[in-house]
Amino acid sequence: MRAVLVFAFLAVITLPAAANLAGHDGADPYAENRELAALPRLHGATIPSLRTYSDEFSAWFDDHFGFRSMLVRWSGAIRLFVLGVSPSRSVAKGEDGWFFYADDDAIEDFARVTPLTPEAVANWRTALLRTNGWLQARHVAYVFTIAPTSTCCIRIRCLRRYRSSAISRGPISS
């Protein structure tokens, strides 16, 4: 039994290299959303060129090893369907199968982790009132609107741990 496990292990770890040697490229440039490393060329047999080649080959192999795109898809599916977490740091998994943008501090904004300070609110109010006054003097209507984000529109679908009860609403008046 142990020999079977050892053989299976060796077969699994050598399959990607064997696939590369057989001409199967495991990369999917359309799914990567970036430029993949090109196969490097060796320029001379000097120590610096060998070091450069080694680094470049490692980058190429990381992008192109056999079955890479399939393994990446499997990893994402396992994280999502088995472990119940988002396979991407850019996406937060909400409730009932909903997903939300999580980059650019979107979750922190949603949860109101760092709300505007009273001074910042006063600065915004002053700037908006000044703009409104300047435009009114020129007989130009001014409407200032803050468009809600998708998480504001469908708060119920976000994870409970991101919800906040500290909601302040109200018009800016002079």
Q: What's the structural blueprint in terms of helices and strands?
A:
Blueprint: H1 2-21, H2 29-32, H3 47-64, H4 68-82, E1 91-93, E2 99-101, H5 106-110, H6 118-137, H7 150-153
Antiparallel strand pairs: 1-2
In DSSP terms (H or I, runs of 4 or more residues), the helix count works out at: 7
Give the amount of beta strand, in percent. Answer: under 5%
Distance between the termini: 81 Å
The helix/strand order is HHHHEEHHH
Low-pLDDT stretches: 165-174
Mean pLDDT: 81
Within the largest sheet, what's the order of strands?
1-2
Q: How many structural domains in the coordinates? A: 2
Shape: elongated
Q: State the share of residues found in helices, binned by percent.
A: 40-55%
**Biggest sheet: strands, sense, closure?**
2 strands, antiparallel
According to DSSP, the number of beta strands is 2
Query: Structural class of the helices, strands and pairings?
Result: mainly alpha
Radius of gyration of CA atoms, rounded to a whole number: 27 Å
Describe the protein in words:
- The chain is mainly alpha-helical.
- The protein has two domains: 2-87, no CATH class; 88-174, no CATH class.
- It is 49% helix and 3% strand.
- The protein has seven helices and two strands.
- The chain has helices at 2-21, 29-32, 47-64, 68-82, 106-110, 118-137, 150-153; strands at residues 91-93, 99-101.
- Strands 1-2 form a two-stranded antiparallel ribbon.
- A hairpin with a 5-residue loop joins strand 1 (91-93) and strand 2.
- The longest helix has 20 residues, at 2-21.
- The N and C termini lie far apart (81 Å).
